[in-house]
Design goal:
Layout lengths: L32 H4 L1 E2 L7 E2 L13 E2 L8 H28 L1 H7 L8 H29 L5 H21 L7 H25 L2 H7 L4 E6 L2 E6 L8 E4 L9 E5 L2 E4 L1 H4 L5 E3 L4 E2 L4 E2 L4 E5 L7 H14 L3 H31 L4 H14 L3 H6 L1 H13 L2 E3 L2 H7 L4 E5 H5 E12 L7 H12 L5 H12 L7 E7 L3 E6 L2 E6 L1 H7 L14 E7 L2 E12 L1 H12 L3 E5 L4 H11 L3 E3 L7 H10 L4 E5 L5 H6 L2 E4 L13 E3 L5 H35 L4 H4 L5 H20 L8
């Protein structure tokens, strides 16, 4: 009866005396993006978490996905609307052109009949109101949003031309601009249809990601499979994933073994083998075996939801160059109005050529100066970049970080877990002498003892016995010495494996016969209290690390290792990989100072780490790159998140930055260069000397073409190979 909440103990309500009842927890949806994200039907780059109006055009935002005519389909609907209006008005446009006295004069034919002016007015009016309606709506939205832009200019230009034509028809005798305005509207409709078609091809990444999650799942109840909606699953539920099906949710394999295609989430091209206790990601494809999976994450915690969040944030963030372009586009809006008004006043008063001539040039100047190409130059590129990056396992959190990445000249790698696997592997086995046990027997005896140890070094030795397919005998009398090693009895022999101090403590003889290798971890082995040899281990260096360092050097970028490990270990890894600088024995709090040191030397620094222990240094660096985030992609301190534990993806990320910058520069050069040349041409600057004029319909065609060229150039980025 009352919203009284008690966390643990039952009882009665202190207000009404009724027994408190246990509230059933609501099942959290697996993917909430389709309910939480909204986009502008006219501008796919606008994505918001809450409904409302578009900040650019003022139109009502619609859901990103989840129904006919919404989201990605809304962009298709807008495209269809422009196409429909273009083809419906096209016959009327042709009719208006044929009735124009100038057209008849130019092409040498004559069509005259009573009421021709009224018929031209009727046709022009239908074209103006029906064909121009989308521009009026969007222009009104821009004005209400206090952000006048391209649609405002288009609506203003065609209104000026239509008003002048109506006045010439009914108020004073003169030549109207019906055919020019009709052609102008027709070209605008055609241009926006083609543009929306191009932009739609560059967007939709979020909607496509949402589609990765299957709508239903096989829930296991009492050993029986029941099909339920994916969004009703709860943490701890067991689900069955059959061969060829998509995994519906993030979880852990309870039973079964299969290979899983994770390319759509992590960018990993090779199928990944999954077996008991291994994690699986929702949206990936189970290939050749059945898996029983326990649900581990739901809602906003799932990998897909987090990836969608990062992509959305990246598309909402703006690089510095876009902020500059936005300012230029706003200025250009007022330049267009000034150019239109100025050209009309000049050609009507200072250099009289008649009202029709002056109005024609004014409309042309306003139309051709529409800053649409400049407004599209950067957003379309950043949208494609975030999608391309996601397909390659590179998630961009902040576009400013990606923008800076092209300038990086020093990449600092955390060693453990980044350049290395963070797992010990056997590097070398050296028996003590001619009378000692063989290499294989030494590994077998040591491995048998280490099977009962949980230490990472012990696990490395056991893993080597598995790689060599050795059969390990049983061990008895096992005893662990924390920080030193372990002992046990194997095949009647007393085995001791550990550091040198353990063997000396046990009184083993012959330990002085071998010298420890630099940069390696040594496990000394004694059999029946006699030293028999050393097993050398080291943190396994990733096979891709050396290639990554080499490619960075080829790109003119220096590399460094930053680790808390001992100097001999760090320098050994550095020599093997060929890095330029080694920072060893660095305490976590001091890692930031090493980054600052490089920055003070004038370097643009990227820090590559796991995003947890390296959070301060990731934040300090010009670009923070979290590597190997896997399903835990919400790394707050990084600018760029790499899904895989692959240092080569750092090279990919920098390549992506450089390719993105190239496209941005190309688009800006085109958009600004086009305006610099087109505006004075449309205003009639070159008419007195060269007789060059730009009619409204040609101005509209040029403006639309410039926008399409910018989008098409950005679309070429999708074919870029980041290898």
């Amino acid at each position: 009866m009352h919203p009284i909440v008690r966390e643990t103990k039952p009882g009665t309500c202190p207000e009404c005396g009724m027994y408190l009842v246990k509230e059933k927890p609501k099942a959290e949806k697996i993917v909430t993006a389709k309910d939480a994200l909204y986009t502008c039907p006219m501008d796919p780059e606008i994505i918001r978490e809450q409904p409302g109006n578009c900040p650019k055009c003022g139109m009502k935002l619609v859901p990103l996905s989840g129904g006919h005519g919404t989201g990605h389909e809304s962009h298709a609907s807008a495209e269809f609307d422009f196409r429909r209006r273009f083809f419906i008005t096209l016959p009327l446009v042709i009719f208006t052109i044929l009735l124009s006295p100038n057209i008849q004069k130019w092409f040498g034919f004559n069509v005259q009949f009573p009421g021709i002016e009224s018929l031209t007015f009727a046709a022009g009016t239908l074209i103006f109101f029906y064909g121009g309606l989308p521009f009026f709506k969007a222009g009104k939205g821009e004005i209400l949003a206090k952000n006048p832009g391209m649609m405002t200019l288009v609506a203003f230009a065609i209104t000026v031309g239509y008003t002048f034509s109506v006045a010439a028809t009914f108020l004073f005798p003169g030549e109207s601009l019906y055919w020019e305005i009709s052609t102008l509207i027709s070209v605008f409709l055609l241009g926006h249809w083609l543009e929306m078609r191009s932009v739609r091809g560059a967007t939709g990444a979020l909607a496509e990601l949402a589609k990765l999650i299957p709508p239903s799942a096989h829930l296991l109840r009492d050993d029986k499979s029941v099909d339920v909606l994916t969004e009703t699953l709860k943490i701890g539920d067991l689900i069955l994933v059959k061969p060829g099906e998509k995994i519906p949710v993030d979880g852990v394999v309870v039973s079964g073994e299969s290979s899983v295609n994770e390319a759509m989430v992590t960018g990993e091209s090779r199928p990944v083998v999954k077996k008991m206790n291994e994690k699986v990601i929702g949206g990936t494809i189970n290939q050749d075996g059945s898996l029983t999976v326990r649900v581990a994450k739901i809602g906003a915690e799932t990998a897909i939801a987090q990836i969608m969040k990062l992509i959305r944030e990246a598309q909402a963030s703006k690089p510095n160059v876009q902020l500059l372009a936005d300012k230029a586009a706003n200025v250009l809006t007022f330049v267009a109005i000034f150019a239109g008004a100025g050209s009309f006043l000049y050609w009507f008063t200072l250099s009289p050529h008649g009202a029709v001539f002056a109005a024609t040039l004014a409309v042309s100047a306003i139309v051709v100066a529409c800053p649409h190409a400049l407004g599209l130059a950067i957003p379309v590129v950043t949208t494609i970049t975030s999608t391309l990056g996601a397909k390659n396992g590179i998630l961009i959190k902040e576009m400013k970080g990606l923008e800076i990445a092209r300038k990086i000249d020093y990449v600092v790698f955390d060693k453990t877990g980044t350049l290395t696997r963070g797992q010990f592997g056997v590097e070398k086995i050296i028996p003590a002498g001619a009378e000692s046990v063989s290499e294989e027997e030494l590994l077998t005896l040591t491995g048998a003892v280490e099977t009962l140890s949980q230490h990472s070094i012990a696990q490395g030795i056991v893993e080597e016995t598995k790689n060599r397919r050795l059969t390990l005998p049983a061990v008895t009398g096992f005893k662990s010495f924390p920080g030193k090693g372990a002992v046990g009895t194997v095949n009647g022999k007393n085995i001791a494996a550990g550091n040198l101090s353990l063997l000396k403590e046990l009184g083993a003889v012959g330990t002085e016969s071998l010298v420890k290798l630099q940069g390696k971890t040594a496990v000394y082995v004694a059999v029946n209290n006699t030293f028999q040899g050393i097993i050398y281990l080291a943190d396994i260096i990733r096979t891709e690390s050396k290639t990554a360092v080499k490619r960075l050097h080829q790109m003119g970028i220096k590399t460094a290792i930053l680790t808390g490990d001992t100097r001999d270990v760090a320098e050994e890894v550095g020599r093997e990989l060929g890095v330029d600088t080694v920072f060893a024995q660095v305490l976590p709090d001091d890692k930031v100072n090493k980054i600052k040191q490089l920055q003070q030397e004038g370097h643009i620094v990227a820090m590559v780490g796991d995003g947890v222990n390296d959070a301060p240094s990731l934040t300090q660096a010009h670009v923070g790159i979290a590597i190997g985030a896997g399903t835990d992609v919400a790394v707050e301190s990084a600018d760029i998140v790499l899904m895989k534990n692959n240092p080569l993806d750092v090279v990919k990320a920098i390549n992506l930055s450089r390719k993105t910058n190239e496209k941005m520069v190309q688009n800006l050069i085109w958009a600004t260069g086009y305006n610099v040349l087109a505006i004075p041409t449309a205003a009639g600057v070159f008419y007195p000397a060269f007789g060059i004029l730009l009619r409204p319909e040609w101005a509209a065609l040029l403006m639309s073409a410039s926008s399409i060229i910018v989008v098409f150039n950005a679309l070429l980025l999708r074919k870029t190979k980041l290898e």
